[in-house]
Design a protein that fits this description.
By secondary structure, this protein is an alpha/beta fold. The chain is 27% helix and 25% strand. It is built from twelve helices and 23 strands. α7 links the parallel β9 and β10. α4 packs across α5. It is globular and about 65 Å long.
Length: 459
């Protein structure tokens, strides 16, 4: 029986959950859902049980396409009436379109996916992306970066994430590119795949590049086939960008996007590298920088909130009209919540998150600037900064650091290092060492967890 028939016979919900590890099975499952005119909901199998159940309840699905090793994570979910382990289906389940069935034609404004935000600041919300949103972003990427049938992608990012869904799944399908998937990031495995398959494109998050940079077995020639190397998800530390170029001769260009924008809005193309820049906007993406207090447009070089507009911007949040309304300004531009500046050539640099901004003695301080200073120290692999209450200054920065292998922790030395590079009020009042900084499944720093640590053991 074809997979589409299984879904139709055993599900009455408008949505279809897909919970699969990175691989070729994911696009097959998604396409089966779209054939029926259903809304696909990629599920993050790394969530805790309660978190996953919240997403399933919110999206109102009663069927989940998964793999047999993941069935154990879904047995407790009361809403789901049917689990389909697609790895246990025969080959007929994936062979073409069953006769006399034909795919249902989707209108551009029909909802295609519910992509749940990573939840770094609270409960995940379902971003409603239409077929027009997804196809627009694929088209924008293809116009911006010219691919050909010789290009080969090494895909390791999870496909439940917007980056993995669009760039590593839908884009290759429409452009006829070869993708080599691996479900887990293990440096030795990535190096093996680079040597065996000689990909031309690799997309990863900063922590992955950091692990490859410090892998003892990595060689310069391992990366020689790559012509497009992109980092996304969070800012790429300068130390990793420079270290990768010095050791391997590879320029890592940054990109930027959001779940709410399907996701890519900016991409620094090969040959256009600029330190700390995520590049220029893709075709049909409009950008502006506004004053955070007045919403007045700011000129090039000034820092303010980034706002975006384009055909790839979401319809809104599922069942959350009030939160949707807050995401858009009076002119219909998406409020990104990111602080940024645009240079005279149109290149964008992200400087911090508006919600993360600290006010220290009346001065605005963005954690990312302090983190960059700490990460430039030879002993620091990664850093996270949050604010602590202070009776005199209002807030003070407190830093958490993840040390490089074999490095010793010296709080005073790190504070002195920052003092040489930052204004006095930006120097962290306290620095704490952790074995590993808390991150979500896509590598983003979980500041709320750092805030909890701070609250649990104040100085």
């Amino acid at each position: 029986m074809h997979l589409a028939d299984l879904i139709e016979r055993r599900s009455s919900s408008r949505t279809v959950g897909v919970m699969l590890p990175t691989g070729a099975a994911f696009p097959m499952a998604a396409l089966a859902g779209w054939m029926l005119g259903r809304v696909v909901v990629p599920l993050n199998y790394l969530l805790k049980e309660d978190e996953l159940n919240d997403v399933i309840e919110d999206c109102e699905t009663d069927v989940v396409l998964t793999a047999s090793p993941l069935l154990q994570f879904l047995g407790y979910t009361p809403r789901v009436r049917r689990l389909i382990a697609i790895d246990e289906l025969g080959p007929d389940a994936f062979r073409g379109v069953p006769e006399p069935r034909l795919p249902r034609a989707a209108a551009p404004d029909d909802l295609a996916v519910l992509l749940y935000t990573s939840g770094t600041t609270g409960r995940p919300k379902g971003a409603m992306l239409t077929h027009a949103n997804l196809t627009a972003n694929i088209r924008q990427c293809r116009e911006w970066i010219h691919f050909d049938h010789h290009d080969r992608i090494l895909g390791v990012l999870p496909q439940f994430h917007s980056f993995g869904l669009t760039v590593l799944t839908l884009l290759p399908l429409t452009a006829g590119l070869t993708v080599v998937y691996t479900a887990r990031f293990v440096p030795a495995k990535i190096l093996h795949l680079l040597r065996e398959h000689r990909p031309t494109m690799f997309i990863a998050i900063p922590s992955m590049y950091g692990a490859l940079l410090h892998a003892k077995s990595a060689r310069r020639e391992d990366f020689a086939s790559l012509r497009i190397v992109v980092s996304g998800g969070e800012p790429l530390p300068t130390s990793i960008a420079e270290g990768f170029y010095e050791r391997f001769g590879v320029r890592i260009n940054e990109g930027f996007g959001m779940t709410e924008t399907a996701p890519v809005t900016h991409w620094c193309r090969p040959g256009e590298y600029r330190p700390r820049s995520v590049g220029m906007p893709l075709p049909c993406v409009e950008q502006r920088i506004v004053d955070i207090n007045t919403s007045r447009d700011l000129p090039p070089g000034e820092e303010g909130e980034l706002r975006l507009r384009g055909p790839n911007v979401m319809r809104g949040y599922f069942k959350r009209p009030e939160e949707t309304a807050r995401m858009f300004d009076e002119r219909g531009w998406l409020r990104t919540g990111d602080m940024a500046r645009i240079d005279r050539d149109g290149f964008l640099s992200i400087t911090g998150r508006l919600k993360e901004m600290l006010i220290v003695g009346g001065e605005n301080v963005f954690p990312r600037e302090i983190e960059e200073a700490l990460e430039s120290h030879p002993s620091v692999a990664a850093a996270g900064v949050v604010g602590a209450h202070d009776d005199i200054r209002g807030e003070i920065p407190v830093a958490f650091v993840e040390l490089r292998e074999g490095a010793a922790f010296d709080e005073r030395a790190l504070q002195a290092w920052c003092r040489e590079r930052l204004a006095g009020y930006k120097v962290p009042r306290e620095v704490r060492a952790l074995d590993a900084l808390p991150r979500n499944p896509t590598g983003k720093l979980l500041r709320r967890e750092l805030q909890k640590m701070l609250a649990a053991s104040p100085a």
